Amino acid sequence: MFIKTILSTCILSLCCGLIYAQHIPRVGSPFVQQYNKSAYHAGNQNWGLSIGPEGFVYAANTEGLLSFDGQEWRLYPMPRHSSLRSVLVHTDGKIYVGGAGEFGFWTRSKFGKMNYSSISDSLKNKELLRNDDIWRIIIDQDAIYFHAFSKSYRYQNGKIETITAQGEPFLFGHQVRNNIYFEQIPSGLHQLNGKQLKRIPDASKLQQANILSMLPFGKDQTLIATANNGLFLMNPSGEISSWSVQADDELKRFQINNAVKLFSDQYAFGTIQNGIYILNSQGETIQHINKNNGLQNNTVLSMAVDKQANLWAGLDNGIDRIDINSPLYYFSDLTVNIGTVYSSIIYNNRIYLGTNQGLFYSDWKGVSNYQSLKFSIIPGSQGQVWQLANIAGKLIIGHNSGTFELTNNSLKRISNVTGAWRFLQIINTNYWLQGNYTGLGLMQAREEIAFLKQFKNRKEPIREILQDGPNNFWLTNQQHVYNLNLGASYEEVKDWKDFSNGLPKDARVHGVYNLANNTVFATDSGFYRFDNVSNEFKAYDELNSKLGSFSNANKVIPIQDKEYWLIKKSHIAKIEFPNDGNLRIDSSSWNSLKGMMMNNYEHILNVNKDLSLIGLDNGFALYFNQYPASKQIPKPIITNLWNITSDPSAIVDEMKIPNSQNNIRIAYASPWYSSAPVQYQYLLEGYTDEWSTWDQVAYRDFTNLPFGKYTFKVRTMTANGIQSEISSFSFRIQAPWYFSWPMIILYILLALAFIYLFRKNYERRLLEHQRKIKDKVLAEHEERMAREAEENERKLMALKNQQLEQELEIKNRELANAAMNIVYKNEMLNNLHHELTNLNDSNGNKLSNEQLRKVNKLIDEAHSDDRDWDLFEKSFNEAHENFFKKLKTDYPELVPNDLKLCAYLRLNMSSKEIASLLNISTRGVEIRRYRLRKKLALPTSKNLTEFLLEL
């Protein structure tokens, strides 16, 4: 793993070396990221700086070792709280430190854990070190030199040896290529050969010069920087000569304190009083960076170059990162309030800035010569400057209060029309159109610049102008789009129309531009084109779909053929229209400028194909287009793993995390340093299936993680969209105690016991169930048999009832027949009685009364014979059991004749038939019926026959 890290670091360093094989710009100042003590929470002074193989920054601070991983500063106090004076990271990752009476090394284990091992504690005589400070550390293969002013301690193979200068004190030690040098006071510079110090032949030239730094120079020379005597060059034979440079006097006056070699044979010198000077190998000053243009402090105590070729400065008060490798350099004059830059121009070897404060100028020598821009305001230009234009070789200023020409460093008024926003030359003429606060003006450029007229057609502000034919022009402001047609002389308006057909309602129009030979209208709803056939605007969908979010750009600025700047509220993108038709867009390289420009008034001046000036809220930025962009960034590093169940605490065993610590925080960082922050994306396999959204937050919390195995992955993306490789690590959340192996065995035993008891219980319940089923079947059988018996009995009863009904019907018929026979007999007797009264004897005489009386007596006896009734009553009782008994019980006042009448009525016999049976008249029957109703107490509504049938 360590070898892999070293190889990756070497490859990355090689890539960085290839990427940054370039020259530092000489105009403007690089971006400086300041870290004060409130940011890193340690002491003011930072005496030493070193970059680790993974890219971490280490600083020797007065309160201990500072570490910065790109996201967070961490302080590691020394034993006995010793102040540190020096730090140097070995290629094996050990961080060697030296300070007041102490030296040793720190090791970084996995996930950021730091452990210190003291070397000085193994000294036999610790009193030797008590009053020493270790100011320099030199690593020479397997030997480590801890250098103090009194002696140098060489640590090799676990042993410490001391190197002294025969009674002379040392100043500093230096390592150049494979050589180690010590300066002795006062005898001068010596080279260490084995254990011996050999004086350099020309050492007398630097005697008591206080050598602060020695660096490789050219193929085999050595650059020597002294405190107050300037710079020198030493050849391999030890001959020393003075090196005269452009900043010689300043370096001597402000006292060199340290130096480092940058890329492309460029050197940075930190001074005590005036910041950092950067020189090239010809001795030319490239940059001067001090408190006026970004440093927190002018006293530079230490310097280091990181793997991106950024320059780090440890200061007397703070730490600064200087992005000398960036294509963006800045100018912000803290002594003059330039304000927001709305326009700029390079004219007659001067650079002019039109701002909200006025018109400013400074000498301009190009970017090949070092110059410190110093701006001054043009007298009388105070106020808002909108536009600067070179018209016929003269500098014309569009000002809030009118239009002016710059003559002899003063303003000459051309027009009183306020607010000259835009100038446009009419093609192939000496006429210029001017868009201003109150409409459109016409200017002419001959020997003098003259304002001819203000067109009176419309008095609305005009922001943008574009020529679309010999006499045809498009004009826009934020609310309207106009089409203007001028006469042949350009001094009269033939037509001025307001167009809005096809534009979204209440759309804000930002301007009209020529984009890849197309006239386009920028709106907050995207780009539109005008269709001359339908005479209306139509959305430019083909372009809008390719531009994405930049389809809502508010400004288009041409760069060169087929290349344009698009700006959307301070966010800059560069688009290209190559011949293959595939539009290319870069919308991230300028992310660091977002929010630093005036929205809707952004300004970019293309000085040439390699240099652009970008107006900012206070000053400007210079973009050097020849700088190659980085194609590779290092993988992020997982810096910490915390248990956040209660108070955050480091997790000891990262591979097996107890279940009680299943609320974890994973912190990570990318040692990639730039003005725009990087973003991170993570994935926790075993917990989520998709990558998270990109975010600048450099840690993630996961709470209540179920037990199991997880793999955490994280990657980084820079502001310009370059993604890193993936860093990952796996860990396991252990099962809770109730899922441990002893508990699992217990669960298995309990499960087996449960299964046994369950089986026994099941068998018991099965037998009980079978018994219940058997009882149920038997009960159901008995119930079914009972139901069948009941049904059979019911059928038998029905059959019996049917038989009884049949018998009753037969008996009723017999009763009816018997009754009818009695009726018939009585009728026969009555007829006989009637016939006897009319009967004559043979002589024709009627029968005698005596004879008739005897016969009638016989007839009456026949009528009153009860044998027929007794027989009828017996038969009736058999058919209608208890009928008479019930009547006698319920109605005891009924007499036998009443019972007879009831019997005959029950048989539903007519009154005539009843009369014959009772040997009375029909009237007599009615009277009896009436009397019977009275005895039965029947209401008039109740039928007598029905009542008797119901009994």
UniProtKB/TrEMBL annotation:
Secretion signal, residue range per the UniProt entry: 1-21
Organism per entry: Sphingobacterium kyonggiense
InterPro entries xref list: Ig-like_fold (IPR013783), Sig_transdc_resp-reg_C-effctor (IPR016032), WD40/YVTN_repeat-like_dom_sf (IPR015943), WH-like_DNA-bd_sf (IPR036388), Y_Y_Y (IPR011123)
Two component regulator three Y domain: residues covered: 678-733
Keyword match Chaperone: no
The protein's name in its UniProt record: Two component regulator three Y domain-containing protein
Statement: the UniProt record of this protein carries the keyword Membrane: yes
Keywords tagged on the record: Coiled coil, Membrane, Signal, Transmembrane, Transmembrane helix
